[in-house]
Amino acid sequence: MSGLRFGPPGPNPLMICIDMQRLFLEPGPWHTPAGHDILPTCVALARARPEASLFTRFLPARSAETASGSWARYYRHWEAVTLERTGPETVDLVAPLLGLAAPERVFDKTTYDAFDAAPFARAIAAATPSALVFTGIETDVCVLASVLSAVDLGYRCLLVTDAVAGSDPQAHSACLAHVYPRFDQQVEMLTTAELMPHWAG
Description:
The chain has a 6-stranded parallel sheet. The longest helix has 15 residues, at 34-48. It has one domain (14-59, 89-199): 3-Layer(aba) Sandwich (Rossmann fold). It has helices at residues 22-25, 34-48, 70-77, 83-86, 95-98, 118-127, 142-152, 169-179, 192-199; strands spanning 14-18, 53-58, 106-109, 132-137, 157-165, 187-190. It is built from 9 helices and 6 strands. With 201 residues, the protein is an alpha/beta fold. Helix 7 links the parallel strand 4 (132-137) and strand 5 (157-165). Helices cover 37% and strands 17% of the residues.
């Protein structure tokens, strides 16, 4: 079941656009080609309500040696995406979103979950949003981790199915078909067409 099953998103929804960065949308180890398919939708939503659009950026470790715990092993495996190898410019949002993302609405994180970054979590709590609208990449990693934290915190979550993407098409599809529907009382799955009359209006 999809759509706004629990009514309009309320007076002050926020869109959380997850990790639409050069790191993922340009050729490289973490290239997510499907991100280009959803970019126009993310831009349209942000342009419709720029003041209500927040953006996250995933910051890889500078090197495996600077990472802690299992992240050190992770970055030994993914050494090619460490900041020493890729350069800090790769964490920038992609150009079409840069002009829509005021600095105070861009939040950096070093883990999958946006809520693990204290400034982001505080900003969301202070805004007391009537709903959180999730877009971005990847459906089965950072978007999923952030949605599950939002669920635990009691936020109403709207997942825009044509505005999320992943590098693994099977994992993306499996999450939309089987994982997110498990949270049917807390996560509403809808399309941009279903959201936009309430979002832009």
